[in-house]
Write a structure and sequence with these properties.
By secondary structure, the protein is mostly helical. The chain has nine helices and three strands, in the order αβββαααααααα. Strands 1-3-2 form a three-stranded mixed beta sheet.
Amino acid sequence: MPETRQKAIREHFEKVLLSAQSEKFHYKLYFRDLKNTPNAFALPSGQIIITDKLIEMADNQQEIDSVLLHEIGHVVHRHGLQQLIHGSIITIAITMFAGDATAIEEMVVALPVFLLESHYSRSHESEADEYAFKQMVKLGIDPIYFANMFGKMVEKESSDTVEKYGEFLSTHPSSPRRMQRAREYSAKYFHSNPAQN
């Protein structure tokens, strides 16, 4: 993605989306080209990574905003940290029973990989969704854009490109209920839904 496009999205992220955040986190937005994979994820530190392909799939800035606010929700609710702790506890428990002290060293080496490959539970996804919807309403962004963006991923899931888009879908489980929830917010707080037309 061109540097000018990255700069515009990053400035919007900092000036608009972060302006509505009351939590004391330090966010940093990164762009990556991961072999045409549409994906976005957040690390416990507040680093948010979004791929070029996901941005390419978005029809407008509002759809990108819905994804970024969802990822901010993961940071605010410390989902990444919870996953990290959960994985560490399991590894330590295995080490205690197996008696293999070298497993601790392997765990430390594997932490970055764990963070990148961890899959949030459906409850974490729902919590991040709710956070995103509330922030969108606060910023005057119709949550229908979340439903529209998510709908594209559901459509990809049902097509013959499942293998190509599987990574995104595995970390963001498709669910008509999630899209319906976004529509409920849209109907409640916005009189019209031009993004549906």
